[in-house]
Amino acid sequence: MLLALVAAAAYAVDVTTKVAAVARLEPGSYVEVVGSWLTLTLVRNPGAAFSTGTGFTEVLSVISIVATLVVLWVARRVGSTGWAVGLGLLLAGVLGNLTDRILRQPGPFQGHVIDFLRLPNWPVFNVADMCINAAAAIILVQAFRGVRVDGTREGDADSEPDSEPDSEPGSEPGSEPGSEPGSEPGSEPGSEPGSEPGSEPGDGPAGGDVDRTTRDPRP
């Protein structure tokens, strides 16, 4: 949901500013916004971001379509806020420039992208270019942090369950819970080692009681 909201908002800003630039700016004219640090001027760019690759408009259009499909595929597994914002900005930037290449002159997949933002000693660019670069920075930060697209971190491992959770420390394998160490399997708790099952504590050896009476040794 966050990815879709970011993508929709950034795409709307890009399209709106391009429409306003075409309607209000003249090619070759400059409108100062922040002195000479930021000016507005209309440039129709047949290439990629920052006026690069001007001779590969059709190729760039195909790359943009592939990139859009890849982002939509990866978006199904997004579980991190950082990745959602980064991929949302990337999707908006790619779609923003792809819209110009499909709909604007001179024709489908050959259209020129509208650029209008100018900084000193820097190529003219647009909002879509800003979104693509911001997305690249966010994705790099997430990668360095070890955060995956689904929100998990590298190195996370599920703890292994205990093999015998009910056995008490020191008990022998196979002994019942609560039995004392050294007792034989099946013996009752509290019975002495070596006693037969069912015998009570204090019973003498098997075979009956010993005759403790003494005889008079005199004849």
Automatic annotation (TrEMBL):
Basic and acidic residues bias (residue ranges): 209-219
UniProt cross-references to InterPro entries, sorted A to Z: Peptidase_A8 (IPR001872)
Topology within the bilayer: Multi-pass membrane protein
Pathway: Protein modification; lipoprotein biosynthesis (signal peptide cleavage)
One Pfam entry name: Peptidase_A8
Biased composition annotated in UniProt, kind: Acidic residues: 157-169
Keyword Glycoprotein: no
Disulfide bond recorded as keyword: no
Superkingdom field: Bacteria
Positions with biased composition (Low complexity): 170-203
Catalysis performed (reactions): Release of signal peptides from bacterial membrane prolipoproteins. Hydrolyzes -Xaa-Yaa-Zaa-|-(S,diacylglyceryl)Cys-, in which Xaa is hydrophobic (preferably Leu), and Yaa (Ala or Ser) and Zaa (Gly or Ala) have small, neutral side chains
Membrane spanning residue stretches: 49-75, 82-103, 123-144
Positions of the UniProt region annotated as Disordered: 151-219
Entry annotation: catalytic residues: D115, D129
Localization terms from the record: Cell membrane
E.C. numbers: 3.4.23.36
Keywords noted in UniProt: Aspartyl protease, Cell membrane, Hydrolase, Membrane, Protease, Transmembrane, Transmembrane helix
Family: Belongs to the peptidase A8 family.
Entry function: This protein specifically catalyzes the removal of signal peptides from prolipoproteins.
PANTHER family in the cross-refs: LIPOPROTEIN SIGNAL PEPTIDASE
Protein name: Lipoprotein signal peptidase
Species the sequence originates in: Nocardioides lentus
Taxonomic path: Bacteria, Bacillati, Actinomycetota, Actinomycetes, Propionibacteriales
